[in-house]
Protein backbone atom coordinates (compact mmCIF):
# COMPACT_ATOMS: atom_id res chain seq x y z
CA UNK A 1 0.00 0.00 0.00
CA UNK A 2 1.32 3.41 -0.88
CA UNK A 3 -0.42 6.62 0.06
CA UNK A 4 -4.04 6.47 1.15
CA UNK A 5 -6.21 3.52 0.10
CA UNK A 6 -9.78 3.43 1.44
CA UNK A 7 -8.64 5.75 4.22
CA UNK A 8 -5.92 3.34 5.38
CA UNK A 9 -2.40 4.82 5.32
CA UNK A 10 0.68 2.65 5.64
CA UNK A 11 3.30 4.07 8.02
CA UNK A 12 6.68 2.94 9.31
CA UNK A 13 6.81 0.64 12.29
CA UNK A 14 5.17 -2.35 13.90
CA UNK A 15 3.92 -3.17 17.39
CA UNK A 16 5.15 0.11 18.89
CA UNK A 17 3.44 2.35 16.30
CA UNK A 18 0.23 2.78 18.29
CA UNK A 19 0.07 5.13 21.30
CA UNK A 20 1.13 3.67 24.60
CA UNK A 21 2.80 0.52 23.28
CA UNK A 22 6.44 -0.24 24.01
CA UNK A 23 8.72 -3.14 23.20
CA UNK A 24 12.07 -4.58 24.19
CA UNK A 25 14.21 -7.56 23.25
CA UNK A 26 17.25 -9.42 24.52
CA UNK A 27 19.57 -12.37 23.94
CA UNK A 28 18.64 -14.81 26.70
CA UNK A 29 20.54 -17.77 25.26
CA UNK A 30 17.52 -20.09 25.34
CA UNK A 31 18.62 -21.97 22.20
CA UNK A 32 20.46 -19.51 19.99
CA UNK A 33 23.93 -18.30 20.90
CA UNK A 34 24.39 -15.55 18.34
CA UNK A 35 21.20 -13.50 18.35
CA UNK A 36 18.30 -12.12 20.38
CA UNK A 37 15.65 -14.67 21.31
CA UNK A 38 13.20 -12.93 23.66
CA UNK A 39 10.81 -10.01 23.17
CA UNK A 40 8.45 -8.05 25.37
CA UNK A 41 5.40 -6.02 24.32
CA UNK A 42 3.95 -3.67 26.94
CA UNK A 43 1.02 -1.26 27.03
CA UNK A 44 0.98 1.77 29.33
CA UNK A 45 -2.79 1.31 29.67
CA UNK A 46 -4.91 -1.82 30.20
CA UNK A 47 -5.91 -3.51 26.94
CA UNK A 48 -8.93 -5.33 25.61
CA UNK A 49 -7.52 -8.61 24.30
CA UNK A 50 -8.64 -10.95 21.54
CA UNK A 51 -7.01 -14.08 20.23
CA UNK A 52 -7.22 -16.99 17.83
CA UNK A 53 -5.26 -20.18 18.26
CA UNK A 54 -4.14 -23.42 16.65
CA UNK A 55 -6.71 -25.99 15.53
CA UNK A 56 -4.24 -28.77 16.37
CA UNK A 57 -5.54 -31.02 19.19
CA UNK A 58 -2.01 -30.96 20.59
CA UNK A 59 -1.80 -27.44 22.01
CA UNK A 60 1.28 -25.90 23.56
CA UNK A 61 1.12 -24.60 27.13
CA UNK A 62 1.26 -20.92 26.05
CA UNK A 63 -1.77 -21.47 23.82
CA UNK A 64 -3.78 -22.81 26.75
CA UNK A 65 -2.57 -19.97 28.98
CA UNK A 66 -3.46 -17.26 26.48
CA UNK A 67 -6.88 -18.73 25.71
CA UNK A 68 -7.68 -18.48 29.41
CA UNK A 69 -6.47 -14.88 29.55
CA UNK A 70 -8.33 -13.77 26.42
CA UNK A 71 -11.62 -15.34 27.49
CA UNK A 72 -11.37 -13.94 31.01
CA UNK A 73 -12.31 -10.51 32.30
CA UNK A 74 -8.84 -9.28 33.24
CA UNK A 75 -7.35 -6.64 30.90
CA UNK A 76 -4.05 -7.53 29.22
CA UNK A 77 -0.91 -5.44 29.75
CA UNK A 78 2.06 -7.33 28.33
CA UNK A 79 3.20 -10.24 26.16
CA UNK A 80 6.38 -12.22 26.88
CA UNK A 81 7.71 -14.09 23.84
CA UNK A 82 10.60 -16.52 23.50
CA UNK A 83 12.08 -18.21 20.42
CA UNK A 84 13.94 -21.52 20.27
CA UNK A 85 11.80 -23.71 22.55
CA UNK A 86 8.06 -24.10 21.96
CA UNK A 87 6.99 -25.23 25.45
CA UNK A 88 4.75 -27.78 23.71
CA UNK A 89 4.14 -31.36 24.89
CA UNK A 90 5.60 -30.38 28.24
CA UNK A 91 2.72 -31.39 30.51
CA UNK A 92 1.90 -29.72 33.80
CA UNK A 93 5.49 -28.58 34.11
CA UNK A 94 5.04 -26.51 30.93
CA UNK A 95 1.88 -24.89 32.27
CA UNK A 96 3.77 -24.10 35.46
CA UNK A 97 6.41 -22.34 33.40
CA UNK A 98 3.74 -20.09 31.88
CA UNK A 99 2.64 -19.16 35.39
CA UNK A 100 6.23 -18.53 36.48
CA UNK A 101 6.81 -16.36 33.40
CA UNK A 102 3.70 -14.33 34.19
CA UNK A 103 4.75 -13.92 37.83
CA UNK A 104 8.22 -12.77 36.81
CA UNK A 105 6.84 -10.19 34.38
CA UNK A 106 4.26 -9.01 36.88
CA UNK A 107 6.93 -8.48 39.52
CA UNK A 108 9.22 -6.31 37.37
CA UNK A 109 6.41 -4.40 35.62
CA UNK A 110 4.13 -3.89 38.62
CA UNK A 111 1.06 -5.42 36.97
CA UNK A 112 -1.23 -8.37 37.81
CA UNK A 113 0.07 -11.77 36.68
CA UNK A 114 -3.35 -12.39 35.13
CA UNK A 115 -2.68 -9.55 32.68
CA UNK A 116 0.42 -11.25 31.24
CA UNK A 117 0.22 -13.16 27.96
CA UNK A 118 2.98 -15.58 26.94
CA UNK A 119 4.08 -17.04 23.62
CA UNK A 120 6.76 -19.53 22.64
CA UNK A 121 8.06 -20.92 19.36
CA UNK A 122 10.74 -23.46 18.50
CA UNK A 123 11.49 -27.10 19.24
CA UNK A 124 8.61 -29.22 20.58
CA UNK A 125 9.11 -31.37 23.68
CA UNK A 126 11.87 -29.44 25.45
CA UNK A 127 11.32 -27.73 28.78
CA UNK A 128 11.99 -24.02 29.09
CA UNK A 129 15.13 -22.95 31.00
CA UNK A 130 13.30 -20.76 33.47
CA UNK A 131 16.44 -19.19 34.86
CA UNK A 132 17.16 -17.76 31.40
CA UNK A 133 13.51 -16.76 30.85
CA UNK A 134 13.38 -14.86 34.13
CA UNK A 135 16.75 -13.23 33.51
CA UNK A 136 15.53 -12.21 30.05
CA UNK A 137 12.43 -10.55 31.48
CA UNK A 138 14.49 -8.65 34.05
CA UNK A 139 16.87 -7.51 31.31
CA UNK A 140 14.08 -6.32 29.01
CA UNK A 141 11.91 -4.41 31.47
CA UNK A 142 14.19 -1.34 31.75
CA UNK A 143 14.71 -1.36 27.97
CA UNK A 144 11.03 -0.92 27.08
CA UNK A 145 10.69 1.85 24.53
CA UNK A 146 7.97 3.14 22.21
CA UNK A 147 10.27 3.94 19.30
CA UNK A 148 10.19 2.29 15.89
CA UNK A 149 13.56 0.63 16.41
CA UNK A 150 12.46 -1.19 19.57
CA UNK A 151 9.52 -2.67 17.71
CA UNK A 152 11.72 -3.74 14.83
CA UNK A 153 14.23 -5.37 17.14
CA UNK A 154 11.41 -7.23 18.88
CA UNK A 155 10.22 -8.56 15.51
CA UNK A 156 13.73 -9.90 14.89
CA UNK A 157 13.97 -11.51 18.32
CA UNK A 158 10.95 -13.79 17.75
CA UNK A 159 12.33 -15.35 14.56
CA UNK A 160 13.31 -19.02 14.32
CA UNK A 161 14.03 -20.25 10.78
CA UNK A 162 12.67 -16.99 9.36
CA UNK A 163 15.14 -15.25 7.07
CA UNK A 164 13.68 -11.78 7.63
CA UNK A 165 11.67 -9.97 10.29
CA UNK A 166 8.03 -9.18 9.56
CA UNK A 167 6.20 -6.03 10.68
CA UNK A 168 3.69 -3.49 9.37
CA UNK A 169 1.72 -0.47 10.63
CA UNK A 170 -1.12 1.75 9.42
CA UNK A 171 -3.14 4.80 10.44
CA UNK A 172 -6.81 5.55 9.80
CA UNK A 173 -9.61 7.79 11.04
CA UNK A 174 -12.42 6.79 13.38
CA UNK A 175 -14.94 9.59 13.95
CA UNK A 176 -12.36 12.19 13.00
CA UNK A 177 -9.76 10.76 15.39
CA UNK A 178 -6.46 9.36 14.09
CA UNK A 179 -6.04 5.72 15.12
CA UNK A 180 -2.94 3.56 14.67
CA UNK A 181 -2.56 -0.19 14.30
CA UNK A 182 0.67 -2.17 13.98
CA UNK A 183 1.79 -5.75 14.06
CA UNK A 184 4.65 -8.21 13.88
CA UNK A 185 4.79 -11.94 13.28
CA UNK A 186 7.10 -14.88 12.81
CA UNK A 187 6.55 -17.95 10.71
CA UNK A 188 8.51 -19.87 8.11
CA UNK A 189 7.85 -23.59 8.54
CA UNK A 190 5.07 -25.79 9.92
CA UNK A 191 2.68 -23.38 8.20
CA UNK A 192 -0.74 -24.59 7.09
CA UNK A 193 -4.29 -23.19 6.83
CA UNK A 194 -6.36 -23.14 10.02
CA UNK A 195 -3.50 -21.40 11.79
CA UNK A 196 0.10 -22.38 11.58
CA UNK A 197 3.46 -22.27 13.39
CA UNK A 198 3.15 -18.64 13.50
CA UNK A 199 3.00 -16.08 16.18
CA UNK A 200 1.35 -12.78 15.32
CA UNK A 201 0.88 -9.78 17.58
CA UNK A 202 -1.26 -6.81 16.59
CA UNK A 203 -1.55 -3.66 18.70
CA UNK A 204 -3.87 -0.68 18.34
CA UNK A 205 -4.78 2.43 20.28
CA UNK A 206 -8.39 2.19 19.08
CA UNK A 207 -11.19 2.16 21.64
CA UNK A 208 -13.33 -0.89 20.90
CA UNK A 209 -15.32 -3.32 23.03
CA UNK A 210 -13.85 -6.72 23.78
CA UNK A 211 -16.74 -8.42 21.97
CA UNK A 212 -16.26 -6.40 18.77
CA UNK A 213 -12.48 -6.87 18.97
CA UNK A 214 -12.78 -10.64 19.14
CA UNK A 215 -15.38 -10.80 16.38
CA UNK A 216 -13.26 -8.65 14.07
CA UNK A 217 -10.22 -10.89 14.59
CA UNK A 218 -12.09 -14.19 14.35
CA UNK A 219 -13.69 -13.18 11.06
CA UNK A 220 -10.54 -11.74 9.52
CA UNK A 221 -8.25 -14.73 10.04
CA UNK A 222 -10.52 -16.75 7.73
CA UNK A 223 -9.27 -14.73 4.75
CA UNK A 224 -5.71 -14.08 5.93
CA UNK A 225 -3.76 -16.46 8.18
CA UNK A 226 -6.06 -19.36 7.34
CA UNK A 227 -5.32 -18.91 3.63
CA UNK A 228 -1.57 -19.53 3.77
CA UNK A 229 0.44 -22.75 3.63
CA UNK A 230 4.11 -23.61 3.43
CA UNK A 231 4.27 -27.33 4.11
CA UNK A 232 0.87 -28.70 5.17
CA UNK A 233 1.79 -29.02 8.86
CA UNK A 234 -0.48 -27.32 11.41
CA UNK A 235 1.57 -26.34 14.46
CA UNK A 236 0.97 -26.78 18.18
CA UNK A 237 1.74 -23.15 18.96
CA UNK A 238 -0.04 -20.85 16.51
CA UNK A 239 -1.30 -17.76 18.21
CA UNK A 240 -2.65 -14.42 17.03
CA UNK A 241 -3.12 -11.81 19.73
CA UNK A 242 -4.84 -8.46 19.20
CA UNK A 243 -4.51 -5.81 21.92
CA UNK A 244 -6.44 -2.51 22.02
CA UNK A 245 -5.66 0.07 24.72
CA UNK A 246 -8.07 2.84 23.64
CA UNK A 247 -5.50 5.63 23.97
CA UNK A 248 -6.40 7.16 20.58
CA UNK A 249 -9.50 8.58 22.27
CA UNK A 250 -12.09 7.71 19.62
CA UNK A 251 -15.63 6.89 20.66
CA UNK A 252 -15.61 3.22 21.67
CA UNK A 253 -16.84 0.86 18.95
CA UNK A 254 -19.61 -1.24 20.44
CA UNK A 255 -21.57 -2.26 17.36
CA UNK A 256 -21.04 -2.98 13.67
CA UNK A 257 -21.23 0.64 12.55
CA UNK A 258 -19.16 2.52 9.96
CA UNK A 259 -16.23 2.87 12.39
CA UNK A 260 -16.24 -0.89 12.89
CA UNK A 261 -16.04 -1.42 9.13
CA UNK A 262 -13.03 0.91 8.87
CA UNK A 263 -11.39 -0.87 11.81
CA UNK A 264 -11.92 -4.22 10.07
CA UNK A 265 -10.37 -2.90 6.84
CA UNK A 266 -7.28 -1.81 8.73
CA UNK A 267 -7.07 -5.13 10.57
CA UNK A 268 -7.42 -7.00 7.27
CA UNK A 269 -4.56 -5.03 5.76
CA UNK A 270 -2.32 -5.75 8.76
CA UNK A 271 -3.16 -9.46 8.85
CA UNK A 272 -3.01 -10.02 5.09
CA UNK A 273 0.34 -8.25 4.87
CA UNK A 274 1.80 -10.33 7.70
CA UNK A 275 0.32 -13.55 6.28
CA UNK A 276 1.88 -12.91 2.88
CA UNK A 277 5.22 -12.09 4.50
CA UNK A 278 5.15 -15.51 6.18
CA UNK A 279 4.16 -17.38 3.03
CA UNK A 280 6.88 -15.59 1.06
CA UNK A 281 9.49 -16.52 3.68
CA UNK A 282 8.68 -20.23 3.79
CA UNK A 283 11.62 -22.39 4.78
CA UNK A 284 14.03 -22.65 1.86
CA UNK A 285 11.64 -20.94 -0.56
CA UNK A 286 12.58 -18.69 -3.46
CA UNK A 287 9.14 -17.33 -4.35
CA UNK A 288 5.80 -16.29 -2.89
CA UNK A 289 3.14 -18.28 -4.77
CA UNK A 290 -0.30 -16.67 -4.87
CA UNK A 291 -3.37 -18.53 -6.17
CA UNK A 292 -6.63 -16.74 -6.92
CA UNK A 293 -9.80 -18.56 -7.91
CA UNK A 294 -12.36 -16.35 -9.67
CA UNK A 295 -15.75 -17.06 -11.16
CA UNK A 296 -16.69 -19.36 -8.28
CA UNK A 297 -20.25 -20.06 -7.19
CA UNK A 298 -19.44 -19.42 -3.51
CA UNK A 299 -16.50 -18.04 -1.58
CA UNK A 300 -16.11 -21.34 0.27
CA UNK A 301 -15.77 -23.16 -3.05
CA UNK A 302 -13.10 -20.70 -4.15
CA UNK A 303 -11.24 -21.10 -0.85
CA UNK A 304 -11.16 -24.89 -1.08
CA UNK A 305 -9.81 -24.77 -4.63
CA UNK A 306 -7.17 -22.12 -3.89
CA UNK A 307 -5.93 -23.93 -0.77
CA UNK A 308 -5.68 -27.21 -2.65
CA UNK A 309 -3.38 -25.68 -5.25
CA UNK A 310 -1.02 -23.94 -2.83
CA UNK A 311 -0.65 -27.10 -0.74
CA UNK A 312 0.13 -29.34 -3.73
CA UNK A 313 3.75 -30.49 -3.40
CA UNK A 314 3.98 -31.16 -7.13
CA UNK A 315 2.70 -27.69 -7.99
CA UNK A 316 5.08 -26.11 -5.46
CA UNK A 317 7.98 -28.06 -6.99
CA UNK A 318 6.99 -26.86 -10.46
CA UNK A 319 7.06 -23.25 -9.27
CA UNK A 320 10.56 -23.84 -7.88
CA UNK A 321 11.60 -25.17 -11.30
CA UNK A 322 9.92 -22.22 -13.09
CA UNK A 323 7.96 -24.85 -15.00
CA UNK A 324 4.50 -23.94 -16.36
CA UNK A 325 3.22 -27.41 -15.51
CA UNK A 326 -0.42 -26.36 -15.48
CA UNK A 327 -1.64 -29.96 -15.31
CA UNK A 328 -0.57 -30.11 -11.68
CA UNK A 329 -2.72 -27.08 -10.86
CA UNK A 330 -5.79 -28.52 -12.58
CA UNK A 331 -5.13 -31.85 -10.88
CA UNK A 332 -4.93 -30.21 -7.43
CA UNK A 333 -8.20 -28.43 -8.10
CA UNK A 334 -9.75 -31.75 -9.14
CA UNK A 335 -9.00 -33.58 -5.89
CA UNK A 336 -9.89 -30.61 -3.66
CA UNK A 337 -13.41 -31.87 -3.04
CA UNK A 338 -14.99 -28.80 -4.66
CA UNK A 339 -17.18 -29.40 -7.70
CA UNK A 340 -16.48 -27.59 -10.98
CA UNK A 341 -16.29 -28.31 -14.71
CA UNK A 342 -12.62 -28.77 -15.72
CA UNK A 343 -13.54 -28.15 -19.35
CA UNK A 344 -14.53 -24.58 -18.55
CA UNK A 345 -11.40 -23.54 -16.63
CA UNK A 346 -9.18 -20.70 -17.87
CA UNK A 347 -5.75 -20.40 -16.24
CA UNK A 348 -3.33 -17.48 -16.23
CA UNK A 349 0.17 -16.94 -14.81
CA UNK A 350 1.38 -13.46 -13.94
CA UNK A 351 4.25 -11.72 -12.19
CA UNK A 352 6.37 -8.59 -12.54
CA UNK A 353 7.67 -10.10 -15.82
CA UNK A 354 4.23 -10.14 -17.44
CA UNK A 355 0.99 -12.09 -17.73
CA UNK A 356 -0.11 -14.90 -20.03
CA UNK A 357 -2.95 -17.35 -20.48
CA UNK A 358 -1.93 -21.00 -20.19
CA UNK A 359 -5.18 -22.90 -20.68
CA UNK A 360 -8.61 -22.01 -22.05
CA UNK A 361 -11.64 -24.16 -21.33
CA UNK A 362 -9.40 -26.82 -19.79
CA UNK A 363 -7.08 -27.12 -22.79
CA UNK A 364 -3.60 -25.64 -23.32
CA UNK A 365 -3.36 -22.59 -25.57
CA UNK A 366 -0.41 -21.88 -27.85
CA UNK A 367 1.95 -20.11 -25.45
CA UNK A 368 5.69 -19.49 -25.27
CA UNK A 369 7.42 -21.77 -22.76
CA UNK A 370 10.31 -19.29 -22.68
CA UNK A 371 8.01 -16.43 -21.70
CA UNK A 372 6.24 -18.63 -19.15
CA UNK A 373 9.59 -19.43 -17.55
CA UNK A 374 10.42 -15.73 -17.32
CA UNK A 375 7.10 -15.05 -15.59
CA UNK A 376 7.63 -17.93 -13.16
CA UNK A 377 11.18 -16.84 -12.33
CA UNK A 378 10.08 -13.81 -10.30
CA UNK A 379 10.07 -13.64 -6.47
CA UNK A 380 6.27 -13.34 -6.51
CA UNK A 381 4.20 -15.49 -8.88
CA UNK A 382 0.41 -15.55 -9.22
CA UNK A 383 -1.84 -18.16 -10.78
CA UNK A 384 -5.41 -17.10 -11.57
CA UNK A 385 -8.01 -19.74 -12.39
CA UNK A 386 -11.45 -18.76 -13.68
CA UNK A 387 -13.98 -21.57 -13.23
CA UNK A 388 -16.90 -19.60 -14.75
CA UNK A 389 -19.59 -20.53 -12.25
CA UNK A 390 -20.39 -17.22 -10.52
CA UNK A 391 -18.96 -14.03 -9.03
CA UNK A 392 -17.20 -15.30 -5.89
CA UNK A 393 -13.45 -15.44 -5.49
CA UNK A 394 -10.72 -16.20 -2.95
CA UNK A 395 -6.94 -15.98 -2.71
CA UNK A 396 -4.46 -18.26 -0.95
CA UNK A 397 -0.73 -17.80 -0.47
CA UNK A 398 2.09 -20.31 -0.35
CA UNK A 399 5.61 -20.77 -1.67
CA UNK A 400 7.70 -23.07 -3.79
CA UNK A 401 9.13 -26.36 -2.48
CA UNK A 402 12.91 -26.48 -2.56
CA UNK A 403 15.80 -28.74 -1.62
CA UNK A 404 16.64 -26.37 1.19
CA UNK A 405 13.27 -27.03 2.88
CA UNK A 406 14.31 -30.65 3.42
CA UNK A 407 17.79 -29.65 4.60
CA UNK A 408 16.42 -27.15 7.13
CA UNK A 409 13.95 -29.62 8.62
CA UNK A 410 16.28 -32.62 8.55
CA UNK A 411 18.39 -31.15 11.34
CA UNK A 412 16.06 -28.60 12.97
CA UNK A 413 16.79 -29.76 16.54
CA UNK A 414 20.57 -29.61 16.19
TrEMBL record:
Its EC number is 2.3.1.35, 2.3.1.1. One of its GO terms (cellular component) is cytoplasm. The active site is at residue 197. The keyword Transferase applies. Coiled coil: none annotated. Pathway: Amino-acid biosynthesis; L-arginine biosynthesis; L-ornithine and N-acetyl-L-glutamate from L-glutamate and N(2)-acetyl-L-ornithine (cyclic): step 1/1; Amino-acid biosynthesis; L-arginine biosynthesis; N(2)-acetyl-L-ornithine from L-glutamate: step 1/4. CDD domains: OAT. Its main location: cytoplasm. Keywords: Acyltransferase, Amino-acid biosynthesis, Arginine biosynthesis, Autocatalytic cleavage, Cytoplasm, Multifunctional enzyme, Transferase. InterPro entries: Arg_biosynth_ArgJ, ArgJ-like_dom_sf, ArgJ_beta_C. One of its GO terms (molecular function) is L-glutamate N-acetyltransferase activity, acting on acetyl-L-ornithine as donor. It is an enzyme of class 2 (transferase). The keyword Ligase does not apply. Gene3D superfamilies: arginine biosynthesis bifunctional protein suprefamily, ArgJ beta chain, C-terminal domain, L-amino peptidase D-ALA esterase/amidase. Pfam families: ArgJ. It is found in: Cytoplasm. Substrate binds at residues 160, 186, 197, 283, 409, 414. GO terms for biological process: L-arginine biosynthetic process; ornithine biosynthetic process. The record marks 121-122 as: Involved in the stabilization of negative charge on the oxyanion by the formation of the oxyanion hole. Belongs to the ArgJ family. PANTHER family: ARGININE BIOSYNTHESIS BIFUNCTIONAL PROTEIN ARGJ, ARGININE BIOSYNTHESIS BIFUNCTIONAL PROTEIN ARGJ, MITOCHONDRIAL. Heterotetramer of two alpha and two beta chains. Catalyzes two activities which are involved in the cyclic version of arginine biosynthesis: the synthesis of N-acetylglutamate from glutamate and acetyl-CoA as the acetyl donor, and of ornithine by transacetylation between N(2)-acetylornithine and glutamate. This is Arginine biosynthesis bifunctional protein ArgJ. It comes from Enterocloster citroniae.
